[in-house]
Amino acid sequence: MHSTQPGMCTRTKQIFVLLLASGSFCFAQQHHGMPRGSRPTSTPRPPPSRFVEPNFLLPANPDVSDYRPVLNAEGRMVIFERNPTATPTDVKLYIADLSTGNVQRFVNFASARADWCWNRSGGGLTSGPVAFSNGDGTYRVDAGGQPVLLPNTAGMIYPSWYPDCQRLAVAGQFNAESNYYNQDLNYTWVTDRSTTPPTVAQMDRNAPRGAAFLQKFQARAGWWSPDGKWFAFESNRICNDISGNTYAIFIQDAAGARPAIQVSDCTWNVQHPKWFPPGNNGKTLLIAVVQAGPMEPFRIASFDVSRLLGSR
To answer: What is the pLDDT of residues 34-58, one digit of tens each?
Structure first.
């Protein structure tokens, strides 16, 4: 017994030394190439988008498509076109309370292209009558009243109120002179009534005069801001869609002297922008319709353009 113990101790020490050596070797292999105190490299954050993301105002509903919204002067109610996705031509006006999301039918017959007058008398903004159009002509709806068809307005569409809420401008075309109209070859135009006679020119002062058309100035469905300093419109000038059916919304200074600012990314098909009334939170908002994909219904959303206006 006593003669074998030293040998056992010696073997135990050898094994222990070998284990220590192999453990040190493994530790060195595991940490090879990573100095002490080093940290994994973090993935850099992508830069923030220069575009404004939509804030959808009503819950998604795949069974309906909502279009051409217009707000009241308090910014709480919105009138818009709605049609079932299964029957796109069945278009009627609806009204929604943005604070509750409650949606009701505004008119029980075919109706589209509404405008809600903002009365500017008294230094503030109050809601006035609503105008809209259909195949029979242009209608007026006073608060709490019923739609009244205005005489001699057959064929006239897109009614737009003057600030006094007494007069309407409408779109129409005399077929005896021309029955051709291509809305994709549009500029936006402004009439200056301070001159005699009134002068008409492109909103963007850099757009070419005469018959030439440049795609980079294409614009339509324009809308003035409540303070008259800005102009919002839709355009397909920048979207890479050969059909021309994908739009982004833009804002431009009222003089049309500086380049327009693109608000929405072309990944969204955004159309028919209008301004919210001024709020107490210091934000400047647009309301518009957004289509997430070619086969998707349109939805109503707001866009906060405060940052873009502050950069000018």
So the answer is: 455 555 555 565 556 789 999 999 9
Of 136, 171, 206, the residue at which a domain comes to its end is: 171
- The answer to whether residues 291 and 195 belong to one domain is yes
Among 171, 198, 217, give the residue marking a domain's end: 171
Gap between the Cα atoms of 230 and 263, Å rounded:
13
Range 199-210 average pLDDT: 90
Q: What is the CATH number of the domain that holds 154?
A: 2.120.10.30
- Tens digit of pLDDT for each residue in 217-228? 999 999 999 999
Same domain, 166 and 192: no
64 in Cβ contact with 85 (< 8 Å): yes
> Is residue 98, in this structure, part of any structural domain at all?
yes
Q: Which amino acid is at 5?
A: Q
Q: Which strands, in side-by-side order, build the sheet including 248-253?
A: 220-224, 230-235, 248-253, 261-262
d(CA 112, CA 2): 109
pTM of the model: 0.81
Per the rule left: phi > 0, alpha: psi between -120 and 50, beta: everything else, 50 is: alpha
Tell me which amino acid residue 237 is: R
Q: Is the same domain home to 199 and 287?
A: yes
Does 120 have pLDDT greater than 90? no
114/172 Cα distance (integer angstroms): 16
**What's the whole-number mean pLDDT along residues 224-248?**
91
Q: Which of 156, 151, 288 is nearest to 222 (CA)?
A: 288
Instruction: Specify whether the CB–CB gap between 235 and 248 falls below 8 A.
Output: yes
Beta bridge mates, 234: 220, 249
Same domain, 122 and 77: yes
Q: What is the pLDDT of residues 255-281, one digit of tens each?
A: 999 999 999 999 999 999 999 999 878
Pick the more confident residue, 15 or 283. 283
- Parent domain of 214: 188-312
**What's the structural domain count of the chain?**
2
Domain presence at residue 15: no
